[in-house]
Design goal:
This protein has eleven helices and four strands. It is mainly α. Helix 5 packs across helix 8 and helix 9 packs across helix 11. It binds glutathione.
Length: about 290
Amino acid sequence: MSRESTLVTLVFSHYNEKARWALDYCGVPYRERGYMPGFSQLGVLFATRGRGGRADRVSSRLSTPVLLTGDSETLCDSTDIARWASARSARSAGGGPGPLFPTPEVVELVESFGRDLGPYTRRVGYWHAFQSETALRTLADENVSRRQALAFRALAPVGRAWIARRLGVTEERCRRATDRVRAEMAKVEARLDRGPYLVGEEFTAADLTFASLLAPALLVTREEGYGATFPAVDELGPEARDLVAETRATRAGRFALEMFRRHRRAPRARPNAGEIAASGADRLVDR
Ligand SMILES: N[C@@H](CCC(=O)N[C@@H](CS)C(=O)NCC(=O)O)C(=O)O
């Protein structure tokens, strides 16, 4: 029997939520090691024995999520993790890509959301968090161990400038990113005219990826199913509050929240992050 897998996360990140959700959906048990930005890179270095993964347009060699599977594989990308989880859950039914990746169209959509939506909701999320007095503190206090949260808070002024530089978080770029998010939502709405899910008649990785990567603009709560805690909407300024309200009112926003509601049951309790022990059974879904 293989050992339990370990998921190394930047705990509140939407790409990480995508991996957690896929693992939970496919019933794969795992332990989560959750980190704040700046610490996650150390977590990845440690987990991969200094090797890291591969950099691409939206991520670095030290990006999360990283999954150390119980069979000693190391997967350094959320799509690779989701595909692995899906194939693993299909193994007993004779193999194949599994429930999350039934067709190549799903793979294409997952990749396009990863490229054209994820980086933009991330930039918008960080910009608005940086305008708030308390948001970064909440992200730390609610998501990682007390020790890590204190260390993060001490380093936050430097960390913030570092994140802003790495991810291009400026007011002007946030504005353009917001427009790109709206354009992606419009594309999704056009698809929803054709059926209940983004591809075909069943929930797939396309729906899961869209909902996860839109989550920072919706501020999906733990109660609504998100596997980490975002700041509360009233911790943010008026512009951010309006954006969350606007996104939640769109058809695409409502669809994403519906995917959380129907396919990702909320975690039972806030785990003691830092060393979060999560099991698939804790956050299962109705399938
Ligand atoms: N292509 C990657 C993107 C992952 C990504 O960008 N992760 C970010 C969190 S949102 C990260 O860990 N960034 C830290 C870094 O690259 O140093 C995936 O889908 O797994």
